[in-house]
Design goal:
Belongs to the multicopper oxidase family. The protein is mainly beta. 5% of the residues lie in helices and 36% in strands.
């Protein structure tokens, strides 16, 4: 029997489905035996980092207590997910889909699908998240996962040796001749996965809030923390079921064979069960550029409207002067003060004693420093709460250099950035000549291949404190993160909201808390739809 973190007694949790510019109110009750927060992966929280749900923006919700998130999905569309952000809790579940649909007046750039299907893929360890934490604290590494889950279930028994009998597997039922929008999220711990559906091409149409140029793939690599939308047409002869596969990518060794999730695509006029070998995935042990070339092929659909009626391509990022530059390097794990830690520019992040902006507004000194280095320096690796002191309304270029031996995914809360380039080797200034300055995809999570670099550019127009982290949960837990502190020198609540009425305090300010179950509704009414959801986060035994 496995224990998972469920939301409203569901694993994965319920879908939150909203429309652009809706106000969203989510009351989270924490029935875990430790503090919890929910992060809204890719939701930008415009001017409102108070709702972001990480330790640099929010105090944890204590066990047995609740807290109400209240935010607007301003000028966004697309496929996202929520998850518990503290202490590797996502390794046990607690995630669910967050869909933002277009307003009726703005058409989507493809025919309306006949249905919408959510698929969560992710590597899985049978030990719970607290046990994984203890192992990492003791200096152990994750090792090879026990498998891959698809929608919270184990693999179909495609192989009598690798897959034991009696495992519940996912089945997705469809009607022949119909086209479905399939949203796929990698909510795993640390493994990049190749996704494919037997005999069914995948037409990519959207990723993390940006409509893409529509290209067809037989299989697609989805890295930790990433979300993609595909159109899939059910045009096959339903003589049998079809395999849905998510398997580890860019790995080697016989133990990784078990790191394969298998579900079933089942037509409503089915006449037979799935059998035979799985559809093959890429053999990129020998052709590692395949995955990078595929990533570079994902480009913005410049003629499509996004959340607003103007085309996505109207923001000509390639013509904007860069105002600041950071080269951020990740390296293999190393010991700091006797503990195994991960670093960015030789700094291993230590969680602040209270949220960053809460410390600012209450004039609490010494919580953090704004001296995160723009390059790896000769300094000794150390623990610290160093933030990137970014310039409001600036246009920053960040090069992520991965000198580790594994793929890393990186995410920035509060923003989408333009992914303008990737390459193997060490980045140098002449690499800018290879940048895509016209239709690079705008997204919030990007992969960085081992021994390679990824360049992103960001228009810094959202004030607040925004978490920049590795999406690989082990590396995040071990210190691979920082925050971008972006402040408007002109103090105004139009560019950064004041703390909500239900703000939680912790650290030196904890005595200010006033417990309440109603939690934080503004007194004034707004001419916007409000989506209400109550999420109960608790342990569920499968």
């Amino acid at each position: 029997m496995l224990q998972v973190i469920a939301v409203n007694n569901k694993f994965p949790g319920p879908t939150i489905n909203v429309t652009t510019n809706n106000q969203v109110v989510v009351n989270v009750w924490n029935n875990l035996d430790e503090g919890a927060l929910l992060n809204w992966n890719g939701i930008q929280m415009r001017t409102n980092s108070w709702q972001d749900g990480v330790l640099g923006t929010n105090c944890p919700i204590p066990p047995g207590k609740n807290w109400t998130y209240r935010f607007q999905v301003k000028d966004q569309i697309g496929s996202f997910f929520y998850f518990p952000s503290l202490g590797l809790q996502r390794a046990a579940g607690g995630f669910g889909s967050f869909i933002v649909t277009n307003r009726p007046l703005i058409p989507i750039p493809f025919p309306m699908p006949d249905g919408d299907i959510e698929i969560f893929i992710g590597d899985w360890y049978n030990q719970n998240h607290t046990s994984i934490r203890r192992d990492l604290d003791a200096g152990k590494t994750l090792g090879v996962p026990d498998g891959v889950l698809i929608n919270g279930k184990g693999p179909y028994r495609y192989n009598q040796t690798l897959v034991p009998a009696g495992i519940q597997f996912p089945t997705i039922r469809v009607d022949p001749g119909k086209t479905y929008r399939i949203r796929v999220h990698n909510v795993g711990i640390s493994t990049s996965l190749n996704f494919r559906i037997q005999n069914h091409p995948l037409k990519l149409v959207e990723t993390e809030g940006s409509y893409t140029q529509q290209q067809i793939y037989n299989d697609f690599d989805i890295h930790v923390g990433q979300s993609y939308s595909f159109l899939v047409t059910m045009d096959q002869n339903a003589t049998s079921e079809f395999y849905i596969v998510a398997s580890a990518v860019l790995v080697d060794g016989p133990l990784w064979e078990r790191v394969t999730g298998v579900g079933i695509l089942q037509y409503s006029n089915l006449r037979g069960s799935a059998s035979g070998p799985l559809p093959p995935g890429p053999d990129d042990r020998w052709y590692k550029s395949r995955s990078m070339n595929q990533a570079l092929s994902v480009r913005t659909n410049g003629s499509a409207s996004g959340a607003r009626p103007n085309p996505q391509g109207s923001f000509r990022y390639g013509q904007i002067n860069v105002t600041d530059f950071y080269l951020i390097e990740s390296r293999p794990l190393l010991k700091i003060n006797g503990s195994l830690r991960s670093t960015l520019n030789n700094i291993s992040f230590r969680n602040p004693s209270m949220p960053i902006r809460l410390a600012d507004l209450n004039k609490v000194k010494g919580v953090y420093k704004t001296d995160f280095p723009s390059h790896t320096t000769g300094r000794q690796p150390s623990l610290g709460v160093q933030l990137v002191n970014a310039t409001y309304k600036g246009f920053i270029e960040v090069v992520l250099q991965n000198n580790d031996t594994a793929i890393h995914s990186f995410h920035l809360d509060g923003y989408s950035f333009f992914m303008v380039g990737m390459g193997y080797g060490n980045w140098a200034e002449d690499q800018r000549g290879s940048y895509n300055r016209w239709d690079g995809i705008s997204r919030s999570t990007t992969q960085v291949y081992p021994g390679a670099w990824t360049a992103i550019q960001i228009s810094l127009d959202n004030a607040g404190a925004w978490n920049f982290r590795s999406q690989n949960l082990d590396r995040w837990y071990q210190g691979e993160e920082t925050y971008f502190l972006i402040l408007n020198p002109e103090k105004t609540n139009k560019t950064e909201m004041s703390p909500p009425e239900n703000v939680r305090y912790c650290g030196a300010l904890e005595s200010r808390n006033q417990e309440s179950s109603s939690a934080g509704f503004s007194a004034h009414a707004e001419l916007l739809v409000t989506i209400l959801a109550a999420l109960l986060v608790a342990i569920l035994t499968l």
